[in-house]
Each structure stands twice: as structure tokens, then as C-alpha cells.
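Quick illustration, no need to memorize.
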Amino acid sequence: DNHIGLGQALQFRGDFGGAAAEYKQAIQLSKGNNPVAQKLLAALPDLIKKATIDKHINNAADLITKKLYVPALEELKLALAQAPNNPDIWVNMGICYQQQEEYQKAIDSYQKALQLDPRNSAAAEGFKACTQSLQDKMIAQSEGAAGDAYKQGKYDEAVKLYTALVTKDPKNAAYYYNRGAAEQMLKQFDQ
């Protein structure tokens, strides 16, 4: 019994090798007839795996708070290799990608978390925020491309780009104005 208690104490501290040795000692001293020690010994591999996953997740959480997203992702990928169906890992990956403005990767991570746990509010909120951020980023790129096309005298291209922007945001008067300016340069007054 002392070996079992010592084994459990070592296990609690994370000394799984020491715990295994104590459980084996208890089994040996009982001439192989110690079901409690056998059960505890048999459970160790799963506990070691869980402890390893938790270690990677906790390391990643610490790195995230320090805004060290690349090493946090490395930790999360190590955890993910052992627990690919853990939605919390996917949420934390989404957070890292989101903070790096890699919105599509963040969206993919949040979607995976939601597939695993449809009620995961952190994944749902992250998905919504990243979808909006990605859309805003794409609009900003389109605005820049349209303005560049106009400045370069590529008025046909500017008209097409501003028309696409009008479709995305029909209440934005600047898009109509800029499209009109490009059409004026093309002498397309009736469109």
C-alpha cells in the first residue's frame, strides 16, 4: 500500500517514471496479485499523453499572453498531433492566426473547432470577427487597386473595380463618385 501511495504522489507531481516503478514494486511485493497497482500502472500511458497535451496547451496559452504567436502555434501543433479532436486547441490556433492577420487560416481553425463543438462560443465569435476582418481587408485591397488603376490611367479597370465595390457596398457614395470620375475619363456619360 505504501508503494501505491508513493506512486500516486509521484504521478500527481508528474514523475510518471517514478510512479511506474512504485506500482511495479507494489505488484512484485504482492506476487502479482495487486489489482489496484495493476490498474494504476495500466492507466499511466493515457495520463502521460494527457499531461503532455496539457503541457503544450499551457505553454501555448502563456506564449499567447506574451504575444508570441509563432512559438505558440508550434506548441499547439504539437498538442494537435496528439489530440486532433480537441476544439480548444483549434480555437487557440485561430486566435494566433487572427492576431497575425492570417484571417483565412483563423477562419479554418475556428470552423474546425465548431465542427467538433458547435456550441463553442469562442470559436463562433472568432469566426465572425475573422470573416468580417477578411472582408474588410479584401475591400481595402480592392479600393487600393481601383485607385491605382485610376491613377495609372487604366480607367476601364477602375470602372470594373469600382462597380464591384458598389455591389459590395451600395451605400458608399465614394465608390459611385470614383466610378463616375473613371467613366468621365472614358467619356461614358450615359452608363
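The chain has a mean pLDDT of 94.
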